[in-house]
Predict the structure.
Amino acid sequence: MIKAQDVTKQYGPKVALGGINLNIPKGSIYGLLGPNGAGKTSFIRIMNQITAPDSGTVYFGDRKLMPSDIARIGYLPEERGLYKKMKVGEQVLYLAKLKGLSAAEAKSRAKDWFVRLEMENFWEKKVEDLSKGMAQKVQFVTTVLHKPELLIFDEPFTGFDPINTNLIKKEIKRLNGEGATVIFSTHRMESVEEICDHIGLINNGEVMVEGPLLDIRKHYMNGTYAFTTKDEQGFEGKDVLERDHVHTGYTATIKADQYPSGLIQELASKNQLLGFEEVLPSVSDIFIDIVNNGPKPWNS
Amino acid sequence: MNNPILLIIQREFLTRVRKKTFLLMTLLAPLLLAAVMIVPGILASMPEDDKSILVLDEPSILLPTEGTEQFSLDYLNPSEFDLELAKNFLRESDKDALLYIPSGNGWDPDFIKNNVLLYGKEDIGIDLQRFIERQLEEKINNQKLIQQGVDPEVVTQTKTQVSVKSFTLGEEDGSEETSATPLKMGLGYIAGILIYFFIFFYAVQVMRGVIEEKTSRIVEVIISSVRPRQLMMGKILGIGLVGVVQFLIWVILSGTIYTVVSTFIYPEIFAQQVPMGPDAPDLSQVDQSNIFAMINSINFPVVLGGFVFYFFGGYFLYSALFAALGSAIDQEADSQQFMLPVTAPMIIAITTAMNVIQDPNGPLAFWMSMIPLTSPISMMIRLPFGVPVWQMALSATLLVGTFFGVVALAGKIYRVGILMYGKKVTWKELYKWLKY
């Protein structure tokens, strides 16, 4: 859906993007992850053609990004808001018309969305009279109203209350199921792990790793094993990373250079081994790993 | 595909026009303006309180002046009253004031002129004081003339009033036009001031609009649909349109109110009243045919065309600057430090207006009407006096050229500024944005 090739962007002396290559597959839910200041928003603004890259190319589908593509993108920026003095309905229609919808089309779609999100009574209200949660729903509707093929959410869940967060996650999944490509950009990596199928991890304007989330997590497995046993017996003298007593027994994770067959046999004889798995690292673990040790080369 | 600039103009226009404050301003301003024109006329025609004044005239200098209908004078006999007695008499009488003219040692006009006293039961109005002063001045002058052996009648007869008829000599066809300097002064000055207010009022609204979009954080949503420059231009055009509509309503309403009041309600006042206050040139002394000649000597198509051109040119130039300013700051309170340098040229143009009027073809007037930041006001003031074509063309070209330059620069600052939050901006910073 989106392909970035050697995209650079510099603000004065500050390098925001140092030649990044990204590939956001069509139909994916893509997590654009990285700490604050990594260059996420700079890249998003380039996709939205708010700024132009200094060099490099961005492709939309199989051709270069064009000005008319903004009508096919829905963007909820991190700094988001609405005209306070304007009525909600008018405002939704105005923003939809700016995206190229006809007045009639915009109105009928907006009415549908207002019913779906149970906000019919907002229409005649002024934005300044809405609660924060209500305004967030309106913002969401304005982002998706023109049925964009690409949805971009920058730090979508900061400032959203839990009810809205769930509602909107559900709606986003539905839109994704209908074919929309979704990009989530956030520095809170754990918040999108469960929803994303692809991620791109960027830091200091460089892509550190990119690909299907599960492949990356498998690739960065680092010999951490989790055991569930009846009690602590058998772990004496072992380098246990984390341990916990749970109602089913005892859990412990250890780090090992190779498959811990000795420990498994030991636990099986001395203790009751109830469960065993190799742990998939979380995205933030992977991030820390790469920052400390550099990216791990893909062999194949 | 909808045209985004039109949509933006439409929104900017409608949201402002629908506001209650717009309605209020639009309706109240002409009423105020009409009031400014009409009320002095009504006040001037109102009968004032009659006052009767006791006069203790020791040197018999005013005697036998009887005063006027408004100020009647009653003389006390100086042989029966001194000042204290007269004051007591005033307290008990129904008279309003006491005028005391002392004779001093002998009959010395220079002593008298400095020692006249006026006591009132209430505040003594300025009219009464002036009336007395005028009366006394005339009497004392006459007395002095007599002392010098001059007959006051002779002086009256020798007073001469000179009235110079001035003409403007046409350059080519040798035609002579009646000079209409006072009319041109008034026209240029009023047009210049109108442009000044229009620019100030509406260009600042552009800045406010930009700040509003920035603080409400909607701006990034908008510019993911339209180019920043389209948003800026749409806003400038939309607010300009509000200004034009408001201006037209004002002109029509003020004119209607003035006409209705002056023809139907108080026709007798307006027949004698000279418009525009006491300092305006006294047109009543010029005969009718001269007025027409004066009006004809002004090239109205040029003045009107110039007004429209500089009205919009100035507004566009300044509103682009103000848009850039608004984008650079987070709240209006921060705007002060940047406002002054931007508005200074306009303030200079308006403060030098009188100098330009007095010498409309001098070097100051010339340069002020060439510099694009001052030309909308200064050139407008000059236009009624007639400006060489090449100067008009140069001034207009410079203004239009600068406008495009400023829009390009302002657009760059605007593009960066609207997405900058929480940063105290300096001039140096703004300069850097130009290169992003």
Observations:
- The beta strands of chain B are 51-57, 71-75, 97-101, 117-120, 167-169, 176-178.
